[in-house]
């Protein structure tokens, strides 16, 4: 018998971006020992994985796992297929940066990790407001996956199912940033850019950079993002 | 414009075992061009992957992809963790060969592959009768995943969702074997054993071997399984 009681455990999907860093801070603030999981699915922006490791360390994650999945072999997305250009302009409908079944896959890996570690919850930083047209960021998708978690795991059958928590679901980017700052997240450690250079410096132009910049402006918080030297906020070209 | 009309496409999860080989034969018989997907999740019985390649070729799959996922890093199952012994005796409840969230993960990969290839269906050889206590082989799990497929993909949002088909769901092992034989499956190419040697020869003793042997007896079909030289059907020890 141990003297100190164990804290409840949570697995947190950590991409290295702004949203998932705030999600990790929330899971910790809600009293969990946090097990961070980053998935390397052949995306071009590997700088995010370095950022994830920095964020996990800074926010006191108990463990940080990076799992590899060779999704790049499937093709079909600008984020994993080098033959498709990442666009600058906001796109109509579902963007070409959509990775087929990405969140389903990442939640599946998180679910397996949670079951092995005895975690009570999986936290994921999806967001319905700024969701940019990704179908697997919508609340109804998260609810459907929670059913899969309940019916498809040993703990779901024999005990309490592993909860799927998406605390940022209905927040604006500005609210996410303000909450992160309150909970001690250093957003200078995070990388959101789809085209970050190997040092994790952001292009300033892609959809993700644009949403992030606008978020800091709306939150009234200084933007600590490290941009490429070529980037100046007034420039709009590629 | 092409002269010959394209057949509908299906992704078929192909483990190299008896059930998934029959499932591939059914998907083909139902008029699909079949895209076979095998997932290498760190399982010890790699001989199954060689078997999958043989089966895909023999049954005329258009493409066969093997995707790697380092699930072994998570531990927690006798099939991926070398520290846990694979048992001989049938076990009560959920067996230690259970891989956390395995079918959720494999269906997720199949879903992404189906979306990229424009497939209308994913076929999976799960079975509720011989399901050996795996929660993620039950019909209610498959139904929950179908909802995830509908809500979490681009095609599900903008067109017809990708169907999740589990044709073996309510069949006995004998029915699966009889159907496979009718559809031309050579079960001598398949490997079901949890402890197959590198040449794909079966131990004859594990749960999977036992179910398979009993199935051939019940189907009244000669058992074409390649067993290890040490195995004789009368022997019951390890």
Low-confidence stretches of chain A: 77-87
Q: Which CATH architecture of chain A would you pick?
A: 3-Layer(aba) Sandwich
The separation of the N and C termini of chain A measures: 61 Å
Oligomer: homodimer
- Major beta sheet, strand line-up of chain A: 3-2-1-4-5
Which chain pair has the greatest contact? A-B, 44 and 45 residues
Major beta sheet summary of chain A: 5 strands, parallel
CATH superfamily label of chain A = HUPs
Output the helix-strand order of chain A.
EHEHEHEHHEHH
Classify the fold: give the CATH topology of chain A: Rossmann fold
* Annotation field: number of helices of chain A: 7
Beta fraction of chain A: 5-15%
Question: In angstroms, what is the radius of gyration of chain A?
Answer: 18 Å
In the CATH hierarchy, what is the class of chain A? Alpha Beta
Number of domains of chain A: 1
Average pLDDT score of chain A: 83
How many strands of chain A?
Answer: 5
So what's the overall shape of chain A? globular
Residues in helix, % of chain A? 25-40%
Describe the structure.
Two copies of one chain form a homodimer. Helix content of chain A is 34%, strand content 11%. Chain A has 238 residues and is an alpha/beta fold. Chain A has one domain (9-187): HUPs (Rossmann fold, 3-Layer(aba) Sandwich). The radius of gyration of chain A is 18 Å and the shape is globular. Mean pLDDT of chain A is 83; it is low at 77-87. At the A-B interface, strand 3, helix 3, helix 4 and helix 5 of A face strand 3, helix 3, helix 4 and helix 5 of B.
């Amino acid at each position: 018998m141990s003297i100190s009681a164990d804290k409840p455990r949570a697995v947190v999907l950590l991409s290295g971006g702004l949203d998932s860093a705030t999600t990790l801070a929330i899971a910790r603030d809600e009293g969990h020992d946090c097990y961070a999981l980053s998935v390397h699915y052949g995306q071009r922006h590997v700088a995010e994985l370095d950022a994830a490791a920095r964020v996990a360390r800074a926010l006191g994650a108990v463990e940080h796992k990076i799992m590899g999945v060779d999704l790049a072999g499937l093709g079909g997305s600008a984020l994993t297929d080098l033959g498709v250009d990442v666009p600058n302009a906001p796109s109509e409908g579902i963007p070409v940066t959509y990775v087929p079944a990405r969140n389903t896959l990442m939640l599946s890996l998180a679910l397996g990790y949670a079951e092995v570690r005895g975690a009570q919850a999986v936290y994921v930083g999806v967001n319905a407001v700024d969701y940019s047209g990704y179908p697997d960021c919508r609340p109804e998708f998260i609810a459907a996956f929670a059913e899969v978690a309940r019916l498809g795991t040993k703990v779901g059958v024999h005990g309490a199912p592993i909860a799927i928590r998406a605390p940022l679901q209905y927040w604006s980017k500005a609210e996410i940033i303000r909450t992160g700052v309150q909970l001690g997240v250093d957003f200078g450690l995070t990388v959101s850019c789809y085209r970050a250079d190997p040092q994790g410096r952001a292009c300033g132009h892609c959809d993700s950079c644009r949403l992030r910049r606008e978020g800091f402006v709306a939150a009234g918080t200084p933007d600590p993002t490290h941009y490429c030297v070529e980037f100046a906020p007034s420039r709009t070209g590629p």
